Amino acid sequence: MSLALAVGLQALTGVAMLLIISLGLAVIFGMMRVINLAHGEFLMLGGYSAILAVRHGVNIWVAMLVVAPLVVGLLGALVERLVIRRLYGRMVDTMLATWGLSLALIGFVSMIFGNTVGGFSAPLGSVDVGGFYTSAYSLFLVFAAALMVGAVWLVLRRTPFGLLARGTMQNPEMASALGVATERVYAVTFAAGAALSGLAGGLIAPLSGVVPTMGTAYIAKAFITVITGGAAMLAGTLSASVLLGGVGVLATFLTTPVLGEVVLLAVAIILVRLLPHGITGRFFRRAL
Amino acid sequence: MSRRNAIEIVTAALLAAVVALVLPRVAELFVLINATVFVSMAILALSLALIWGFGGILCFGQTAFFGLGGYAYAVAALNLGDSTYAVPIALAVPAVAALALGYFMFYGRISDVYIGAITLTVSLILFNFANSTAGDQWHIGEAPLGGFNGIPSTPQLNIPGDPDATLSPQAIFVVAVVCLASCYILSRLVLASQFGRIVVAIRENEARAELLGYDARRYKLGIFTLGGLIGGLAGVLFANCVFVSPTMFSLFYSGQVIIWVMVGGVGTLFGPILGAMLLQGLTTWAGTLPGINPNAVLGVILMLAVLLMPMGLLPGATAVLGGLRRGTAP
After folding, report:
1. How many A/B residue pairs have CB atoms within 8 Å?
2. Fewest Cβ atoms closer than 10 Å to its Cβ: which of A287, B63, B170, B177?
3. Surface of B (235-264) touching A: CB under 8 A
C-alpha cells in the first residue's frame, strides 16, 4: 500500500515537473504559433537569477517566485522586440533564430559564470507521508504547478486582456480589424511566456542545480510535451504532461531512469503519429 | 542533364582531385586529421541540404543517421575484424533507419513542426540510450558499447579484403574527399533526374504535385532515405578520424548541421558544404581564443543569418554578383 502511495506521489511530482517546464513554451506556442527553442535557456537564466539573488541575501522564496520570472520576463520582452517581431508567420525561421539565441545564451553565460554547477538547497525539509519521508519541496512543486495553470486560466478567462488575447489567438486579422493592437498582445504574451519559463527555472533550480547547458536537458522534453498536447495550450499541456509524465515515472520505476526517459519519448512519438494534431486536435477541442 | 550541371560536376571532380592530391603532401598530420573531420561534416551538411533544401523536410535530428552510421561501422568492424563489409553495413543501417522512420512519418501524413519534433526526439532517444550503455553487459558481439565514453577502439578503414593493411590518415583524407565529391555528384545527378524534379515540385507545392498524380509520400521517403544514407557515410568517416561516442547523436551537432545549411543557403548543394567548412573553421578558431565561447559566436551568427540573410551565403553572394554584373544594386 505504502509502495503504491510512493509511486503515486512520484508520478504526481513527475507530472508537475513536466507541466512546470512546459507551460512557458506552451503559452507562447499556443498563442503565437511560435516555437521558442531558447526556452531551455530561459529556464537556465531563471535559475541563475534565483541563485544570484539568494547569494545577495534575498529571501529564497522571493528569489525563486519573484526575481526569476521578473528578470526573464524582461529579457523576453527585449527578445520579442529585437528578434521575434521581425519573423511573425515564418515558423521555421523563428525556430532557427531562437535556436541561435539559445546557443548564444549558453555561450555568454558560460563566459560569465564558467562551466560550474551552482545551486542552493531546497527549502522546507521533509515530511512524513504514510510511513515514509519525502521532500516537502516536491509536494510544493505539485502545488506550484496547479497554481501556475490556474493563474494562466484565470488571466485568459476572466480578464479583459485574456479576452483580447483569446480573440487574437483565434483570428488575428479579425481581432486587428476590430481595433485590437495584436502586436501588443503578442509582445505581452511572449514576455508572459518567458516569465513563466523564468519562474520554472527558479522552481527547479534547487532540484537540478544550475549550469549554462541545463536548458538542453529540458527543451526537448518541453517541446515534445507541447507538440503532443496540440493546439489548446492548457488542456493540451495538462493532458500531455499527465500522460507522458505518468508513463515516464512508471517506466523509471520498472526499469532505470534513463530507460524511463526513453520510454517517455517513444510514447510521445507514437502519440504524435496517431494524433498528428496533438491530443487536443481530437479530444477536448473546445478547451483552452 | 543540362550543360550547367555538367560543368558543375566536372568542376567538383577537378576541385576534389586537386585537394586530394595536394593537401596530404603539404599539410601536417594534425591539420590533415582535422581536415578529414571537416570533410565528414561537409558530407553531413550535404545530407541535410538534400532533405531540407530540396525535399522541404526540416529534419532536426540528422545526427541520428550520423551516429548510427558511426556506431554501425565501429560495431561491425570490431566484430568482423575487417572494414570491407563493415562499410556497407554502416551505410545500410542508417538508410534502413531512415526508411523506417520516414515511412512512419510520411505515410502518417505528418508534416512541418511535427516532423521536427519526431526527428529531434529520435536523436534524443538514441543519445540517451547510447549514454546508458556503460558496463560489461552492454556489448554487441565483440564490441563493447561503452556508454558515455563511446568506443575508443574504433578500427580504421583497411584496404578491402586485407584486414592488415589499415589506411594511413593521409589515405583516409583522400577517401573522405573522394566520398564528398561522389556524394555531391550523386546528389546533382539525382536532382537532375525525374525523381529529383518531382521531389522539388513537392517541396514547392505538395497539393499540386499530388493532384498531378504523384504520390508525395513515396518521393519524400526516397529523398529522406538517401539523406539518411549520406548522413551515415559522414558518420563512418568521422568515426575514422575521431571515434564513435554518444556526442555524435547530441543536440549540439544536430543544431550545428542546421546552422551550416542555413548559413550556406537552403536549397543549394554547394552552399551547405561551404557553410560547414567555414563555420567549423570559425568554431575551431573561436575555441582557441581566451575567454570566448564558440557557442556564443555560432549562436549570434545563426540569429544574424536568419534575420539579415534568410537566403544564405551562397544565394546571397550570387544575387549580389549578378546585380553587379548587370550594373544594378541587388
Report:
1. 122
2. A287
3. 251-252, 255, 258-259, 262
